[in-house]
Structures are given as C-alpha cells and as structure tokens.
Amino acid sequence: MPVLSVIVPFHNVEKYIGPCLDSIAAQTQAELEVICVDDGSADGGPAVVESILAQDPRITLIRQDNHGVGHARNVGVRHAGGAYLAFVDGDDVVPRDAFDRLVSSLEDTGSDLACGNVMRLYRNLLVPSWAHREAFARPAKRTHITRHPLLIRDRMLWNKVYRRSFWDRLGLSFPERMYEDQPVAMAAHIGARTVDVLAKVVYHWRHRDEPDASITQRRLEPGNLRDRLLSVLQTADLLACGAPKLKPDFDRDTLDIDMAVAVEALAEMGGSADPGLVDLAVRYLDGVSREAWQSLPFEQRLLVHLLHERRLDELAGVHAQAGDGRLRPRIGSAGLLRKRWYGRHPSMPGHLSEVSGELALQTRLVGLDWKDGVLHGSGRVAVGRFDVAELRRVRVRTYLQERVTGDVVPLSDEESLPVWESVEQEDGGRLPEHAFPFRFAFDPGTLSRAQLARHGHWDLRVQLRGHGLRLDGRVAGPRWLPPLMPVPRRKSGVWLVPARNAKGAWGVRLRTADAVIGDYRVDGGELLFSGEMSDVGDGEPVLRLQRRSDGEEMYFPVALAGQDFHARVPLADIDERVGHESWWEVVIDQGTAIRPLVRTRQRAVATVDERRFLIDRGEDGCLLLAER
C-alpha cells in the first residue's frame, strides 16, 4: 500500500499537466500513487498523462465526462489506497520535498492534518501568496484553527496532506460545483483534533494569464458567482456551528473579496440580475455582524449595503461612479470629547457611516525643481477619496525625515483651503479631486556636516492638522507622470539626489558616486547610455540588471574608453514583465557592484514590440528600468 495518494483532477491544461506531474514524480517522498482524473478534457492533456504514466507505474489515469472538479476529486478519493491524501491541481507545481515534509510531520505528531506555505507562480516568478503569508510565517505543531485563527484564510485544498482515517471519520466529500474546496478545507480545519503548520513552502499556485484560464478568472459569470456564493454560505454555516468565534474573521475576508466580486457582477447585470443570485448574497449578508461590516472601506461598504438592500439599479449607478472616481462622499465629524468621523451619502445609514479608522492622506507632488540652489516643490494632499469641504481651512506642514535617525528638517507650515481640481491619471484620463495645495522649499545649507556625512535617505513627508484631525504620510505620486526629477546637486563632496521609489514616494538621497551616467536615450529599441567611472579597475566591467521583485539578473557588455563607459540594452531582450509591473535596477558589476548616479533630468518612455518601458532614476539615484 502506498504511503500517500496524490489526486490530480485536470481539465484542458495540456500546457501545464506535464510540469505538474513531473514535480510530483520527483518528490523525495517516493512511496506514493498519483491518481489523475481527466474531467472531460478537449485538448491533448490526457495524451500527455498517458505518455508520462508509461514511464512511471505509480501514475494512473481515470477518464470521465465533464462533471466538474468536485466530482473528479471524489472519484480520485474512492480509488485512493494510501494512508494519507493530498490534492494537486493540474496546472500547479509541487516543490520537491513538500510531501515528505508534510507526511513526516504527521507521523511525528499524530496530527490529522498538515499544511504548509504557498507561493504564487507567475510564469517563472515566485511571489508569496497573500492568503498564506501571515498564517504560515512561523511553524506550529499540534495546533488548531481555534488557537491559530489566521488559518481562517487557509481555505485552499492543495497545500495540505490529510490522514486518510481522519478524512473518512469526518465523512468529507466535495460538493459537485465550483469553489468546492473552501467548505472542505474549513471542515477539515475545524474537525481536526490537531493540525501541523509548516512555514516551509509546499505548493506553487500558478497564476494563468491566458483569457478564460481559470474559475477565478471567470468570476463574473452568473454560474460562477452562484457556486461562489453557495460555497460562502456553506462555509459561513459551518463556522457558525463549529467555530463561532472565527466567523467575524471569515466575514471580514469574505466581505472584502467575495462580496466585492458579487457587487461587480450584480452591478453589471443591474435590474436584469437573476433574483436567485441576489437571494444568495442577501442570505449571507443577513448573518454578518456590524463589526465585520465596519471593517470595509466606506466605498465598498456602501456598495455591499446597496446589494444587501436589493437596490440593484442604484448599485449599478454608484458602482459606475466609484469605478471612474466620481464617488466623493463628504466627510464630517461629530462629538466633542471623542471626535468621530463619518462619510455622508444619502444611501448610507448612519450606523454604517463611520470612517474614523480609514482616513489617510493621498498626496501628489505637482512640481519640483532647483532655483538658486534651493529645491522648490508644490503638491496636493487629499483625505482619501472624500469631499473635504467641511474641513475648510487646515494647516499643512511639510518636512524631510531621515530614516535611520529620525532627524527632521522642517520645510513649510501653512494654512490651506481645499480646492477641486481635475487630476491626470496614469491611463491618460482625468479625475476630480478635492485636496489641499501646499508648497515647500529645501535649502541644503540647513543640513549639518554630520547629516551630510551619514549619506542617509530623507523621506519627504506631509502632515495635515485641523478640526480635531491630524494625519501624516509620505509625499508620493504616480511614477509614470510628472514631475521630472531634478538633477542631483553636490555639497561638501556629497550628492543630494531628489528621487522617488518604485511606489512613487519622494525623498532626497545623500550619497557619493563611483560612476555617473551623463546621458541616456532610447534609439531603435535599444537603451543607450554613457558616463564616467572614477576607477576603472583591472577587470572588464559588465552591466547587470536586477529585478527588484525576485533578484532575477540579466547581463550586458560595457565598453570602456579610458574612464568613459558606454552600454546598450536591447529592450526586447529583457525578460517579460511579471504581474502589473517589473522594475529592474541597473548596476555596473566590476567585481563589486557600482550603482551609477544618473545626473540628467530626463525620463524616457518607449514602446518596443508592444511592450511599454519607462527609464527613470531610482530611489538612490541609480538608473531604473520599468515595464508595465
């Protein structure tokens, strides 16, 4: 009898099923059987499985008409003979030692269930799964979801190994619909006597970017939404009966994720929406506590409230306003000793209107440049996406703050009145914004010798005060929009570099420079740049591009002529972006990494082979290459 039975349902994943099975076959836990259940594939996936099983007797193939993944998993369980069960989706990948770690943990502790950390797989890039990052930050043996409540987010099936006797004792089986894994995963967590939590990554969950690739990417289809809501209701009932103290945590996540999908889908359908779908959403929302409602941001809370009230035509209108930025409810306050803040909208009842915990600054730098050796800037600061007319006049203070020491250099402190303005967006459109304008000036002469010598990072910050409100935040702005970054200035041998990070937050970096880029441009699809190195050394330097998200590196030659250097990077040769944006830092590698300082004020945007690139200066003044 095999130690572990691995059940792999698959449907139309010809491109991925081979790597999936290869990763299972390569497991260090060799005493396993792999039960592949073809759920009526119309592509070449079954042929791929047959070619693999011909070389590996541990793999079997069961074929059926398309009944859905829940039915396929139930079929796989009925054929499984192992002492332990695991499930893998046919488009995902399992790290080589994953099953060995999970099974060994169960054999050591006697727990009913072992689960581990997860990474999302974007093409060839692995990033932490947001749903698992906190719950699996630290290992825990013989615990339980009631003692480790972050496991409420661990609602997936496939990062686990189950003791088969436990599975049978609970009588677990899958609903024959989509989103079938959530209620089973939660029933297992609640029904287990003890659970082992592994911090090690045991599963690579693939993000597929082809159209209509997965269930979650077809989330707005009525059938998909119905199955999703049924799964939510089943899980909510399970928690209400078996672990009621965990239900508020489940509701907070469900309101934020599943109800956001329901709002989007039903707002799109409007008055033509199937009443049965609305009934399912309302049934769930009827059981949500006020505490959980309050966890939603005001805008989403309003939309979910309209869904709960079945006001679908109004929901469609408000959803459209929110989508294009026109939903700007006014904020107001109440109370003397303990002032609370509320969003004002005619459709929102008072008991759901408080926004005290979500008020935060949204800032945008509008202009920045040197004048007579002083760095002058201007910007706007808003309070979230609210109309701030009731605040009237406030004080806006700007300052620089050094990250390590906390030293502060005051820049300005002035009264400001809110102004409506149409603000440019990165997609080329414009949105109305109600915000307080501000100006500031930074004289480098205010820095002491010690502050200059520390070569520190100074963040540009803004504080808004008035009417019992005091908010503080970094000055930021869309990375791909103006203003251009001013050129660096030198003082007492130290470069003062106005710069912003990949998220658009501004500051000043103090540094020295072993290499300086004096010019760059895009010509014929190539990034060309040149500059000067203070010490060319003995070896041949190379240009290294390093991706910030995962450390992936690419190398290109550097041509030297004395201390002058020249380099060219064919943009089409750069690895394609992963996710919304990829950021590459440009470093000259000469045995040690030299981060060349960009002295120019320009910023280049280029389209090469339908790929859009931005060439700019990074947070420490080096060359930064972005693709989106």
Described by the principal axes of the CA atoms, the overall outline is: globular
Query: What percent of residues adopt helix (DSSP H or I)?
Result: 10-25%
Give average pLDDT, whole number.
92
End-to-end CA span: 51 Å
> What proportion strand?
35-45%
Rounded to the nearest angstrom, the radius of gyration is 28 Å
Strand-pairing-aware structural class: alpha+beta
In the predicted model, the low-confidence regions spanning at least 5 consecutive residues are: none
How many H/I helical runs?
15
Give the oligomer, counting copies of the same chain as homo and different chains as hetero.
single chain
> Mind summarizing the main beta sheet?
11 strands, mixed
Write down how many β-strands occur, each being a DSSP E stretch of 2 or more residues. Answer: 33
Describe the protein's topology.
Layout: E1 4-10, H1 14-25, E2 32-39, H2 45-53, E3 59-64, H3 69-79, E4 84-87, H4 98-109, E5 113-122, E6 125-128, H5 130-133, E7 140-143, E8 160-163, H6 164-170, H7 181-191, E9 195-207, H8 222-242, H9 247-256, H10 258-269, H11 275-286, H12 290-294, H13 298-308, H14 312-323, E10 330-334, E11 340-344, E12 361-371, E13 374-383, E14 394-402, E15 408-416, E16 419-424, E17 430-442, H15 449-453, E18 457-466, E19 469-474, E20 489-491, E21 494-500, E22 506-511, E23 515-523, E24 526-533, E25 542-547, E26 553-561, E27 564-570, E28 582-589, E29 593-594, E30 597-598, E31 604-608, E32 611-617, E33 623-627
Parallel strand pairs: 1-2, 1-4, 2-3, 5-9, 23-30
Antiparallel strand pairs: 4-8, 5-6, 5-8, 7-9, 10-11, 12-13, 13-17, 14-15, 14-18, 16-17, 18-19, 18-22, 20-21, 21-22, 23-24, 24-27, 25-26, 25-28, 26-27, 28-29, 28-33, 31-32, 32-33
